[in-house]
Sequence to fold (191 residues):
Amino acid sequence: MADRVREEPGVRRQRKVGWLTPVLLLLLGGCGQQPSAEPATAGHASASATAEPPPVAWTGLAAMDPCALLTPQDRSTAGIGVLGKPKDIAGARACDWSVPGTFGVTVTLSDTDGLADLEVAKKTATKTTVGAHPALQVADKKAADGTCAVLLGVGDAASVQIDVSNTGFSDTPLACRRAGTVAGLVEPKLP
Fold:
């Protein structure tokens, strides 16, 4: 189950790449340049050099490791006795925990898609909050397929998706309880 990419039915990520080019150009623009230290010439006052602002540390979801969001104690609370495996899901960083014979959990971090950017079938989504973050619980109760997701909004342009899939693809309410538990453990660590 760990090797299979699980995407919640009705949830599709929209990719926004237009912002990436200017950011990369800005970041790469200063690479390899040395500050010039030209000596002042006679008769000319040297202009005082303005201090460069310190580099901005990566913050927010970009600085987070999805596999580090569940500590050993958190994993124990959620019934996860295995280590997570990093993976990439549609260009987003994710971590997958598969409990053999029981269930799997995937936590996906999106630095570019807020809750409003995610396409979710309205009939499967329920608005809620987890801690201080707006959230959606997504489950197709009619399908009764043992899958459930909790999507946490992190500001307007980022989100965290917690997907749970029960082995045997049954008991959707149990999958939602598990997703809610993991969301409650992850949420306090989010910006």
